[in-house]
Design goal:
The chain is an alpha/beta fold. The protein is built from eight helices and five strands, in the order βαβααβααβααβα. The protein has one domain: P-loop containing nucleotide triphosphate hydrolases (Rossmann fold). It is 55% helix and 12% strand. The chain binds thymidine-5'-diphosphate (TYD).
Length: 213
């Protein structure tokens, strides 16, 4: 039996990760593998409840809801439930887990964007999820103009509490992701997401080839 693998897709808003997660899952199932697709924040009932809080905020608090540290703790709490109830059991039975966003989103958004240190984000991850890391993290990168075009098509009813933050915040997020890939090349595969979905999918399959042989 093939050993289960844990693959995360990361990137900024409008990078096309969700489409790629679906195409990748179909391709792996076509090879006869047991595949679980999931997302963060969310993936379990408990984590989806935290997702709703995080993305919608709470009424009557004047807008921003939680400070950056509280926000990081909520993401870590959602991840803890997700890892404990879904990701670890799936890997243990030999499934492949494809996760749309994971730990590196906390490093990029709450760290790069929100100003928490990378050490603090890693500590939360160690406490919440015993530091579980993906076998490979696919960083899907698109030019800012393509991201804006895709978001205009997707977010016709407006963006959520985090997606709607200003350009400077999202520029810091993109810079943080690029820096992680630069300094941790063994953990990341950088994927050019500017092409059409099939072109990007082909790049992802090529990046995964070493794990499939
Ligand atoms: P989602 O609609 O899933 O975004 P996208 O389609 O762009 O992936 O919303 C998830 C949002 O949560 C997104 O703005 C990124 C943010 N996020 C964090 O800030 N920290 C995290 O740890 C995770 C997992 C997501």
């Amino acid at each position: 039996m093939t050993t289960g693998r844990f693959i995360a897709l990361e990137g900024g808003e409008g990078a096309g990760k969700s489409t790629q997660a679906r195409l990748l899952a179909e391709a792996l199932r076509g090879k006869g593998l047991d595949v679980v697709t999931t997302r963060e924040p969310g993936g379990t009932a408990g984590a989806e409840a935290i997702r709703t809080l995080l993305l919608n905020g709470v009424e009557g608090d004047g807008g921003e809801s939680w400070n950056p540290r509280a926000e990081a703790l909520l993401f870590a709490a959602a991840r803890s439930d997700h890892v404990h109830r879904l990701i670890r059991p799936a890997l243990a039975r030999g499934a492949w887990v494809i996760c749309d966003r994971y730990f590196d989103s906390s490093r990029a958004y709450q760290g790069g964007g929100g100003g928490l240190s990378d050490a603090d984000i890693s500590t939360l991850h160690a406490i919440g999820s015993e530091g579980l890391l993906p076998d490979l993290t696919l960083l899907v990168e698109v030019s800012p103009s393509i991201a804006v075009e895709r978001l205009a098509l997707r977010d016709t009813e407006g963006s959520d509490r985090i997606g709607g933050r200003d350009r400077a915040y999202h520029a810091r997020v993109a810079g943080a992701f690029a820096a992680f890939a630069e300094t941790e090349p063994a953990r990341f595969a950088r994927i050019d997401g500017n092409g059409n979905p099939q072109e990007t999918h082909a790049l992802i399959l090529a990046a995964l080839a070493p794990l499939l042989s």
